[in-house]
Amino acid sequence: MSLSQQDLQKYVGKNVHDAQKELEKQGYEVHLVSTGRYATGCVPPKNVHINADGTVTQDKRAIISFNGDDPERKITFISHD
């Protein structure tokens, strides 16, 4: 079961790596995007799967943004698609 956007907001302000571990345990594929002087990261296209019965499913993904200049690496924005 996927978390709602509202549920994900509890991670804002927390350490990016702690949140990443927790979300990966829940089955999310996590993409990190660092902002600041040395911005890094990207969000690749969604992986869509067509099952044998014709239903379409996609991986659970979370996109986490954080300020790379912040030594505490706190999450500034999080979303899923």
Sum this structure up briefly.
This is PASTA domain-containing protein. With 81 residues, the chain is of the alpha+beta class. It contains 2 helices and 5 strands.
> Stretches where pLDDT falls below 50 for ≥5 residues?
none
What number is the mean pLDDT?
91
What structural category do the secondary elements indicate?
alpha+beta
CATH architecture: 2-Layer Sandwich
| Rg measurement, Å | 14 Å
- Tally of extended strands? 5
CATH class descriptor name:
Alpha Beta
Order of adjacent strands in the largest pleated sheet:
1-4-5
Strand content: 25-35%
Total number of helices:
2
Element string (H = helix, E = strand) = HHEEEEE
The CATH topology annotation reads as Trypsin Inhibitor V, Chain A
Protein name: PASTA domain-containing protein
Task: Walk me through what this model shows.
17% of the residues lie in helices and 32% in strands. By secondary structure, it is of the alpha+beta class. The protein has a single domain, classed as Trypsin Inhibitor V, Chain A (2-Layer Sandwich), CATH 3.30.10. The strands form two sheets. The protein has a three-stranded mixed sheet, covered by helices on one side. Strands 2-3 form a two-stranded antiparallel sheet. The two termini are 13 Å apart.
Strand and helix map with partners:
Layout (H helix, E strand, L loop, with lengths): L4 H4 L7 H10 L3 E7 L12 E3 L5 E3 L2 E7 L7 E6 L1
Parallel strand pairs: 1-4
Antiparallel strand pairs: 2-3, 4-5
